[in-house]
Amino acid sequence: MAKRRYIGGVILCLALSTSIAAEPPTTAVIGTPPQAVWSQLNAQQKTILAPLAGEWDKMENIRRKKWLGIAERYPSMKPDEQRRMQDRMREWASLTPEQRAKVRNSYKEFNQLPSEQKQAVKQKWEAYSNLPPDEKQRVRQSGKSAQLLAPPPEPISPAPSAEEQPISEASSASPVRPPAGEPGKN
Amino acid sequence: MVLTSNRSSNSHFRFASDNRYLRQILAILALLLGMWISFYMDSNNYVSELEEVDSALLSDDLPPEAFLDNDFFEWLKDDTSAE
How many Cβ pairs within 8 Å bridge chains A and B? Predict the structure, then answer.
């Protein structure tokens, strides 16, 4: 119970936290030397940063510097991390500075949760994000998020129950046959 | 004689005043260099922090969309704080 309250508090912070400034500090902008344009990147950098090729030359120096740093870290990542990184690069770069700041703040808070609570949030998100939009709303209104982790009793019981009868009749009929057949075998 | 001593004191004065200008310019350049180094360090710190957060969140199995979905987080917040 106390743990749940703790998660609640942390998530409240997650939702409300907008403390990191969306724009970089002016001193950092002035202190960033001009960074390479796309044509000056080496082959490895171009391969890693390929999803950003279209917008690279329009990016501010400070963002280019950050991506070049990420490209340096990239080879040390696991293959599935590398795949996720490249899949998300373009979409991430297309977010507004405010959205990126919001996600970073929330992620920092999320990372401070104990690993089993992080795992629970991930499982809930996985279940939730696969629902169609109207179903998401229905689930949110119907109760607590813990239902996302429970084995889904509702979807199974109402729909198949109507169909189950003929099946159960068929299946109940089929067990009858073997005994009928078995004596015949004997 | 007077003329030559006048001339030498004149050139000495000019040298001293040039020297003062030079020192002022050097002081300003040193100040600018100091400021730029401080800004450069600021940029390095800021960028390395961003690098760390962005590389972790973009490679995590929980996608960034999860943190942008206000409805989802509001819901988690509401039902965990209700207990």
Answer: 146
Q: Does A113 touch chain B (CB under 8 A)?
A: no
Q: Across the interface, do B53 and A107 touch by the CB < 8 Å criterion? A: yes
Nearest to B57 by CA among A118, A132, A179, A50: A118
pLDDT in tens, B2-54: 555 566 666 666 767 788 899 999 999 999 999 999 999 999 999 999 999 99
A25/B61 Cβ within 8 A: no
ipTM above 0.85, yes or no: no
Which tokens hold the place of A97? 């500075």
State the SS3 of B6-52: HHHHHHHHHHHHHHHHHHHHHHHHHHHHHHHHHHHHHHHHHHHHHHH
A134: helix, strand or coil: helix
Q: Which residue of B has its CA nearest to A101?
A: B50
Q: Are A58 and A94 in contact (CB under 8 A)?
A: no
